[in-house]
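Make up an example, fold above all:
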Amino acid sequence: MTDDAAIAADIRLLLSDRAPDASICPSEVARRLWPDDAWRDVMPDVRRVAVRLAEIGVIRITQSDAELDPGAPMTGPIRLRRGPRWLD
């Protein structure tokens, strides 16, 4: 079982350590919280938490240069970026 609060906190921490316009890959979060090969198993959880953060505007989910709708199905690689409510 994963801890959604830990995932959300790590997303924010990684983004805080980057330039304001930089992005992170969800796998960076998974690899930090679940080392070895276990990180692959929690990728759906990391994406789920990212979607929740995007729904409230804390982050944005992008693919290439396009911002994705957090309510729409997502396939392929995505990136996480600071959203309009980042500092809330």
